[in-house]
From TrEMBL:
One Pfam family this sequence matches: MR_MLE_C
InterPro entries listed in its UniProt record: Dipeptide_epimerase, Enolase-like_C_sf, Enolase-like_N, Enolase_C-like, Mandelate_racemase_C, Mandelate_racemase_N_dom
Residues engaged in binding Mg(2+): D190, E218, D243
Record GO biological process: peptide metabolic process
Keyword Metal-binding applies: yes
Enzyme class label: isomerase
Family classification: Belongs to the mandelate racemase/muconate lactonizing enzyme family.
Cofactor: Mg(2+)
Alphabetical UniProt keywords: Isomerase, Magnesium, Metal-binding
Species annotation: Fulvimonas soli
Protein name: Dipeptide epimerase
Record's cofactor remark: Binds 1 Mg(2+) ion per subunit.
């Protein structure tokens, strides 16, 4: 099975409610879809959102990186040589992790199709169902409480509360949600870099003293402020998770050695795809550090790849934040994993099992 061509499409899906974080507000999923064609007629699917505020990647940069740097190295390569292909993708250029992820996901899809097996089985197998949280956007307190109650009614037992806008209001936001859903859902906070280290310690200690039990706090301070991450980690009981601070395996090793966080958020769009995500899960397992598998505002193609990884690497990946498709008004992907509110199941279709993507717009 040899790679012959790489084509693109644009996927746009409106969200149920605007997605608001300390970094950005968006009202739709808008992702580049990558289709890797082969001489056997098999097509591998990949996907990448343009999360410029986190990865630096835009729709234009994703397409250019693939067209000019990645695709020329892949045409003619045999899918059976998976490691050689992932090395070609990772070595094609610096950064551009979303472009690399989209192509790697499509190649792993083909690799599964080549051997007629679902990806999770080729990665080691595991229990086919995982449970995700759902994100509550940062907003007025009443709206966040209403959104939290609606999520609990839908069966979500873990809420990822976005904060990081205003420290005083953030504390009130979390207290109000805690009072509304106590005993029915775990609370995770994500400040998306919105606090200083001292603000984070103040907010978390205030919440802890008020009896608000938090499962974790994600990226309380600026991505580059590893000393700030360690400052917070050393001073609060709530486990601290690194998201924007860590992209690849080397950064994870450095962060663990610094003891700058307790948990690592693995996202395919930061790691450049599955090969580095697998490395990170193995490194974390070696050090006894837990991981979350997360996503950007992504549709079901790349999230399907992330689910297969989470199933196969359940020893290291103990927490799941794969709610991108649940936040969208509909799922345009036919095949892939099955979403049933908080439960996501892999199927035994070969590769990622994606059959069709509805409403794909052409890319010039
Ligand atoms: C969608 C997911 N639950 C999430 O919250 N991801 C964010 C970043 C997503 C984005 O801005 O597209 C995160 O964990 O920081
Ligand atoms: Mg985050």
């Amino acid at each position: 099975m040899k790679i012959t061509d790489i084509q693109f499409g644009m996927l746009r899906v409106p969200l149920k409610t605007p997605f608001k974080t300390a970094l950005r507000t968006v009202d739709r999923v808008e992702d580049i879809v990558v289709m890797v064609h082969t001489d056997t007629g098999h097509v591998g699917y990949g996907e990448a959102p343009a999360t410029a505020v986190i990865t630096g990647d835009t729709h234009g940069s994703i397409i250019d990186a693939i067209r000019q740097y990645i695709a020329p190295r892949l045409i003619g390569q045999d899918v059976a040589n998976l490691n050689r292909i992932t090395q070609s993708i990772q070595g094609a250029m610096e950064k551009n992790s979303s472009a690399k992820a989209a192509v790697e996901i499509a190649v792993y899809d083909l690799w599964g199709q080549l051997y007629g097996a679902p990806l999770y089985k080729l990665l080691g197998g595991g229990d086919p169902v995982i449970t995700t949280d759902i994100t509550i956007s940062v907003d007025y307190i009443d709206k966040m409480v209403a959104d939290s109650l609606a999520a609990v009614e839908r069966g979500f037992e873990s809420l990822k509360i976005k904060v990081g806008k205003d420290i005083g209001v953030d504390i009130e936001r979390v207290k109000a949600i805690h009072a509304a859903v106590e005993g029915r859902a775990l609370l995770r906070l994500d400040a998306n870099q919105g606090w200083t280290a001292k603000q984070a310690v103040y907010a978390l200690q205030t919440l802890e003293d008020a009896g608000v039990k938090l499962e974790l706090v994600e990226q309380p301070v600026k991505a580059r402020d590893l000393a700030g991450m360690r400052y917070v980690t050393e001073r609060v009981h709530t486990p601290v998770m690194a998201d924007e601070s860590v992209f690849g395996p080397q950064e994870v090793i450095d962060l663990i050695r610094m003891r700058a966080a307790d948990i690592i958020n693995i996202k395919l769009m930061k790691t450049g795809g599955l090969s580095n995500a697998i490395r990170i899960a193995d490194i974390a397992s070696l050090y006894g550090v837990e991981c979350m598998i997360g996503c950007m505002l992504e549709a079901a193609i790349s999230v399907t790849a992330a689910v297969h990884l989470a199933v196969a690497k359940a020893d290291a990946i103990t927490k799941v934040d794969l709610d991108g498709p649940s936040l969208a008004q509909f799922n345009p992907v036919d095949g892939g994993v099955i979403f049933d509110e908080s439960e996501i199941s892999v199927t035994d279709a070969p590769g990622l099992g994606i059959r069709e993507i509805r409403g794909l717009e052409p890319v010039a």
